[in-house]
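Slide 14.
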Amino acid sequence: MTGPMISIPTQDSEPAIAFGTSGLRGRAEGFTKAAVFAHVAAFLDTACGASAARRVVIGRDLRQSSPQIAGLVGGAVRALGWEPVNGGTVPTPALAAYALARNLPAIMVTGSHIPADYNGLKFYRPEGELLKADEAPIRDKVARGEGGIPEFAPELGPEEPGVARDYVRRYLDAVGADTLAGLRIGVFEHSAVGRDLLAEILAGLGAECVALGRSDMFVAVDTEAVEPHTLAMLRAAVAREGFDAVVSADGDGDRPLLIDATGRQINGDVLGALTARWLGAETVLTPLTSTSAVEASGWFTNVIRTRIGSPYVVEAMAAVDGAGVVGFEANGGFLTGSVFALGPGTLGSGTLSPLPTRDAVLPLIGVLAEARARGVSVADLAAQLPRRVMAADRLKQIAPDRGQAFVEAMARSAQMRGDIDAVLNRPVAIDTTDGTRLVLGEGRIVHFRQSGNAPELRCYVETASAAQTEALLARLMARLAAHFQTE
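Slide 15: predicted structure.
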């Protein structure tokens, strides 16, 4: 590389960006020229030795800061001697699928569902999603700041239309043209980067699609915590239009949202379990935050629980031999680790190739197709799973060391558990895969975990009813607040 060098600003002189549950995140202004170059250089150097082509596919979501950051990524890639390929504004799984099929690394500029003034980078190795084990070498190399930063210009170049085209074909090749025939679907577009592709795919499978709520400005939609006014708008649309369902995804298209014909949101792990059954999956991998309905259904030969975060699901999937392997998270993001035969497809083979990264489109297709094939509503289909209700809350401003010490004490100390609440006294089982998960009597589950992204202690409660879950969660959160105030 040639040209004058500039030093990397210290953390005191620019907003911090850091790896979280999945990818690099932080305020948009933290993605400076220096910070972007340092992370891209570390990623290509430590995680991309398997790519001989020296091309990097770059995608972005629709938030206002994404074009600028994507330009910095492209310029950094060029300055490092690689060729940037502009994938355009596409869903994260579309970018991942395109790159994986060509053994290329990829970088997605997205903050997913977090506020509009934040952003992020999600990295894909030529072999697939960046794993947790890959993050430490990148962090270490960035911290060392070796070699400085060359002067370079932002670069995006012309868009490669194949990224979006191949994503649409992925589903039209695998699923029949009349699979969703007769269904009237509302597509909540907001500022989801995959909004047009989602409607194109559903229409290609026979559904009538009606657009709802398109926004020209980025709106952060968390599919696990949809704002009450947004839910009210979607429920009103269902009632007014007589939709069979309303569907959507988060900002980068890897988490689904589905509202049934009664106006009720179907939880992500329910979408995952139903989709896995529709595919004929044998082995399901899912984090501890998915409800125990997955096991209780009896639909699957193997259910393997992982730590929370898609990189852990991906890593565990890679270790499973055999066919019929899928993964999903409690947010509904769905991953495939095997080839699935669905045919005959609309355009081709009738087979779905593996895509071991979160995807929002497949679970939406799967649940709608399964409901139509069985001649039932989406609500009735969801009711075929054993009734389990999970809810979560968080206690803010809990330092990681304090929170982690508490979580560990809850695993080993009956006295500590009893001090918090007598219901925790005698667990049937204790799981420390990620935090402390207590299986209690009467089918109740309580899970404590210190957040990996923020100074927060999280509490998850699962029971057989919404009322019981909400009551127990509220009681435990009050006890936790009192404990940390007096500790």
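Speaker note: Residues 95 and 163 are 6 Å apart (CA to CA).
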